[in-house]
Design a protein that fits this description.
The chain is mainly α and about 240 residues long. The chain has 9 helices and no strands. The protein has a single domain, classed as Heme oxygenase-like (Heme Oxygenase, Chain A, Up-down Bundle). The structure holds fe (ii) ion (2 copies). The site of one fe (ii) ion (FE2) has 6 residues, from α6 and α7.
Length: about 240
């Protein structure tokens, strides 16, 4: 029996992404607008399109490593099968993005490490994980799943935006929409796992942890969007993105 089941229901509304308010809402709208423009520009050239695929490949690689290094070693036996299934999904995503790159003349051998901004973000998330672990009976497993949830929600947001700027006839649409469906399932999986491993009296700590994780994510929003837009201007050529 999980901790949550033993102590009764708790308020887990913190698991859903809160709608941004005030200045945060203005920032989120600008980030979204800049990223949509950058996506369209990057799709205009083969180099821009390969860069997008490499960014996704780096993200999938990082997720695979996090599952192998952080989740799998500390998962209780009842969670192991689920983590193995999740890992298999992320490994399939790595394969799919590597294949798409190869089809576009990139052997995907020299793997792109997460960029400087993403590495800074991961470092700050890791510090939060260690600061909060002592509040939970399951220790670091909770921050690992909380970070995982936010990363999967981010993947869902990024891929939803990307699918919405492409027409369904675009060559990359089937790949992106297939990965998007998996990431949506991973969001549900992380939410359900957190409901099971967090005791009702620990829920307020989880709410604060998720707020801090999302604050770190949002603080990189504008700089990430501008970096992407800069790449769009450098690599974007002429032509239509709606292939
Ligand atoms: Fe993935
Ligand atoms: Fe995922």
């Amino acid at each position: 029996m999980s901790v949550g089941e033993a102590l009764g229901p708790a308020d887990f509304s913190c698991l859903s992404m809160p709608a941004p308010q005030g200045l945060g809402a203005v920032q989120a709208r600008w980030v979204d607008r800049i990223k949509r423009a950058a996506l369209l520009r990057l799709h205009r050239s083969p180099r821009g399109e390969r860069l997008l695929l490499r960014i996704y490949l780096a993200g999938e690689d990082a997720t695979e490593r996090a599952l192998l290094d952080e989740l799998l070693p500390q998962s209780p036996p009842w969670l192991e099968r689920q983590v193995q299934q999740h890992l298999a999904d992320e490994q399939r995503h790595v394969t799919l993005f590597a294949e798409a790159l190869r089809e576009r003349g990139d052997d995907a051998q020299a793997r792109l490490e997460p960029d400087w901004l993403s590495r800074r973000k991961i470092l700050r998330w890791q510090r939060l994980a260690h600061r909060y672990a002592g509040h939970f009976e399951h220790g670091l497993l909770v921050p690992a799943y909380a970070t995982g949830l936010c990363a999967e929600q981010m993947a869902e947001r990024v891929l939803s935006r990307h699918c919405s700027v492409l027409s369904s006839g675009h060559g990359l649409y089937p790949l992106l929409s297939r990965v998007l469906a998996d990431e949506k399932a991973h969001v549900r999986l992380c939410e359900n796992t957190l409901r099971r491993i967090v005791a009702p009296h620990e829920a307020p700590h989880l709410a604060r942890l998720l707020k801090d994780i999302r604050r770190v994510d949002a603080s990189f929003g504008i700089s990430g969007a501008l970096a992407m837009y800069g790449a769009g201007w450098l690599l974007g050529g002429r032509g239509s993105a709606g292939r």
